[in-house]
Amino acid sequence: MKKVISLILMGCGGVGRQLLQHIVSCRSLHAKQGIHLRVVGVCDSNSLLVASDVFTMELGDTSLLQVCRIKSDGSSLLTLGASGELQVFTNLESTKKIIDVATLLGKSTGLALVDCSASSETIALLTQAVDLGCCIVMANKKPLTSTMADYDKLISHPRHIRHESTVGAGLPVISSLNRILSSGDPVRRIIGSLSGTLGYVMSEVEDGKPISEVVRSAKSLGYTEPDPRDDLSGMDVARKGLILARLLGWRINLDDIRLIESLYPKEMAPGVMPVEEFLGTGLLLLDKDIKERVSKASLSGNVLRYVCVIEASRCEVGIQELTKDSPLGRLRGSDNVLEIYSRCYNGQPLVIQGAGAGNDTTAAGVLADIIDIQDLFP
Ligand SMILES: NC(=O)c1ccc[n+]([C@@H]2O[C@H](COP(=O)([O-])OP(=O)(O)OC[C@H]3O[C@@H](n4cnc5c(N)ncnc54)[C@H](OP(=O)(O)O)[C@@H]3O)[C@@H](O)[C@H]2O)c1
Ligand SMILES: *[C@@H]1O[C@H](CO)[C@@H](O)[C@H](O)[C@H]1NC(C)=O
C-alpha cells in the first residue's frame, strides 16, 4: 500500500522550481519508502495549473519539468496550455479554484498547500484552507509574521503545519526548538546570525575591507537580493526573529521587534535613493563609520555581528559586539549560526550552524517538511 501525499505548490521561483526538481528526482527513493507525492496544482502570481480531475489525476513529471523550464525562461505558466491532463486558470479565478480543490480534498484524500511564494497574498487562502482540513508547508515568512489573529489561525492545528525553511533555510532550527520546548525545557535566550548576506558582510569588514567593496562583491556573488538594501535593512532578520519569538509563545507583532539598526541611513532608503546611486556613491559614505566601529571592537578583542537576540522580554535586531571565541564570534562567511540557551543547554549553548540560504537547501527543507506530515494522509 502506497501513501499518497497530494499537494498544491504556490510560487515557482528559485525555491519552488527546485522543489519540483527534488520531487521528480526523489521518485524512486520515495517509492522505496512507500510514499508518492502527487502534485495536483502549481501556481505563480498570474496563473494556476490544476489536474483536470483532482481525485484521479496529477501533474506528471513531464509537466512538472516543463513548468520549471518555462518559468526559468521567464515565460508564463499559460504557455503550457490546457490539455486532457491539465486545466489552466488566470489570477482572478485561481484563489477560488484552490479553495474548491481544498474543499474537495482537504478532508478526503488530504491536501498540503506548499507556500514557496514571497507574498502576503497567500495568507487569506492559507487561513481558509486550515478550516478545510488542509496541511500547510511554508518557506514564505509573510503568513507567520502577519497579525496575531492570522498566526493563531495558521497554528490552530499544530500537527498540520510545517515551516522549517522560514528560518535558516534547510537548517533544523524550528524542529530543534520545538523539541526543546515540548520537553518543558525553557528557552532563556536565542542569539543568531540569520542572514547569509549580513554574516558575509560582517566577517569581511572584520578583515579590514571597506563595506562598500564587500556589499558590491556580495551582490556580484549572488548573495544579496537584487537591491542589497532589502538585506541590509534587517527587515528579513526581524521577520525571522518574530517567527522564533512567537514559537516561544510570545504574543508580539513585527512592530514590537526592536530593529536597532539598518546598515544604511534613512536618506539612502529605497524610494529616496535609486539603487544605482546607492551602489555607486551611497555605499562609500558608510565606509568610515563601520571601519571605526570594527577597530574599536577589535581593541577589546571583540568582533561585530549582525544578530537577532531574543531574551527576557525583548527581541532586538542589529549589530552587536561579541567575543571572538563564541560560536557567533568564530563565524566566517555566509553561514547562519544560532545559539540556543535553556536549562539543558545552560553554560554551553546548543549551536546550529550551516548554509542558511540557497534554493537547494531551502527546497530540501520544504520537501522534508512534506514528508514529515505523511501520517496525516490516508
Ligand atoms: N531563496 C532562498 O535562499 C530562501 C531561503 C529561505 C526562505 N526563502 C523564502 O522562500 C520563498 C521563495 O523564495 P524564492 O527565492 O523562490 O522567491 P522568488 O524567486 O521571488 O519566487 C517567488 C514566486 O512566488 C510567486 N508568487 C508571487 N505572488 C504569488 C501569489 N500571490 N500566489 C502564488 N505565487 C505567487 C512568484 O510568481 P511569478 O513567477 O509570477 O513572479 C514566484 O514564482 C520566499 O518567501 C523566501 O523568503 C528563500
Ligand atoms: C535561485 O534561483 C534563482 C532563479 O532560478 C536564481 O536566479 C538564483 O541565482 C538561485 N540562487 C542560488 C543561490 O543558486
UniProtKB/TrEMBL annotation:
<feature type="binding site">
    <location>
        <position position="141"/>
    </location>
    <ligand>
        <name>NADPH</name>
    </ligand>
</feature>
<dbReference type="GO" id="GO:0050661">
    <property type="term" value="F:NADP binding"/>
</dbReference>
<feature type="domain" description="Aspartate/homoserine dehydrogenase NAD-binding">
    <location>
        <begin position="11"/>
        <end position="157"/>
    </location>
</feature>
<keyword id="KW-0028">Amino-acid biosynthesis</keyword>
<comment type="pathway">
    <text>Amino-acid biosynthesis; L-threonine biosynthesis; L-threonine from L-aspartate: step 3/5.</text>
</comment>
<dbReference type="InterPro" id="IPR011147">
    <property type="entry name" value="Bifunc_Aspkin/hSer_DH"/>
</dbReference>
<comment type="pathway">
    <text>Amino-acid biosynthesis; L-methionine biosynthesis via de novo pathway; L-homoserine from L-aspartate: step 3/3.</text>
</comment>
<keyword id="KW-0791">Threonine biosynthesis</keyword>
<feature type="binding site">
    <location>
        <position position="225"/>
    </location>
    <ligand>
        <name>L-homoserine</name>
    </ligand>
</feature>
<dbReference type="GO" id="GO:0009088">
    <property type="term" value="P:threonine biosynthetic process"/>
</dbReference>
<dbReference type="InterPro" id="IPR036291">
    <property type="entry name" value="NAD(P)-bd_dom_sf"/>
</dbReference>
<dbReference type="InterPro" id="IPR019811">
    <property type="entry name" value="HDH_CS"/>
</dbReference>
<keyword id="KW-0560">Oxidoreductase</keyword>
<feature type="active site" description="Proton donor">
    <location>
        <position position="240"/>
    </location>
</feature>
<dbReference type="GO" id="GO:0004412">
    <property type="term" value="F:homoserine dehydrogenase activity"/>
</dbReference>
<protein>
    <recommendedName>
        <fullName>Homoserine dehydrogenase</fullName>
        <ecNumber>1.1.1.3</ecNumber>
    </recommendedName>
</protein>
<keyword id="KW-0486">Methionine biosynthesis</keyword>
<dbReference type="Pfam" id="PF03447">
    <property type="entry name" value="NAD_binding_3"/>
</dbReference>
<dbReference type="InterPro" id="IPR022697">
    <property type="entry name" value="HDH_short"/>
</dbReference>
<feature type="binding site">
    <location>
        <begin position="11"/>
        <end position="16"/>
    </location>
    <ligand>
        <name>NADP(+)</name>
    </ligand>
</feature>
<dbReference type="GO" id="GO:0009086">
    <property type="term" value="P:methionine biosynthetic process"/>
</dbReference>
<keyword id="KW-0521">NADP</keyword>
<feature type="domain" description="Homoserine dehydrogenase catalytic">
    <location>
        <begin position="172"/>
        <end position="371"/>
    </location>
</feature>
<dbReference type="Pfam" id="PF00742">
    <property type="entry name" value="Homoserine_dh"/>
</dbReference>
<comment type="similarity">
    <text>Belongs to the homoserine dehydrogenase family.</text>
</comment>
<dbReference type="InterPro" id="IPR001342">
    <property type="entry name" value="HDH_cat"/>
</dbReference>
<dbReference type="InterPro" id="IPR005106">
    <property type="entry name" value="Asp/hSer_DH_NAD-bd"/>
</dbReference>
